[in-house]
Amino acid sequence: TSLNNLAELHSVQGHYRKAEKLYLQSLEMTKRTLGQDHPTYAVCLSNLAILYARQSRFGKATALLEQALTKQLRTLGQSHPETERTRQSLVNIKAAMH
Predict the structure, then answer these.
(1) Could you tell me the pTM of the whole model?
(2) How far apart are CA 23 and CA 20, in angstroms?
(3) By the 8 A CB rule, do 4 and 42 touch?
């Protein structure tokens, strides 16, 4: 979580390369320690997707958000705030693509 938060700090500051590197490390650590089905893994996917969206890498962002949403629907349910956040991010990115 701390690594993911540090990545977010770099992302909002516009340090995209550093943020991506940290997000990828966070994703790998979460996968290794908690597994791909853990809700935190989906949050990591979602955060990396937002970084890609900030860089106008909409294809990558959409794919990651769709993965995250599928995991969140299965583990957290439809009405969980994280699920809704991911769903809204996906809607926003798809709108930005048009």
Answers:
(1) 0.92
(2) 5
(3) no
Q: Give 94's Cβ-side CA count (13 Å radius).
A: 11
The CA-atom distances, in angstroms, between 3 and each of 8, 29, 50, 55, 73 are 9, 9, 16, 20, 25
Using pLDDT thresholds of 50, 70 and 90, give the confidence band for residue 78.
Answer: very high
Sign of CA dihedral 61, 64, 70, 76: negative
Q: How far apart are CA 40 and CA 6, in angstroms?
A: 15
| Three-state DSSP string of 8-36 | HHHHHCCCHHHHHHHHHHHHHHHHHHCCC
Long-range contacts, stretch 82-88, CB < 8 angstroms, 24+ apart: 82/39, 82/42, 82/43, 82/46, 85/46, 86/42, 86/46
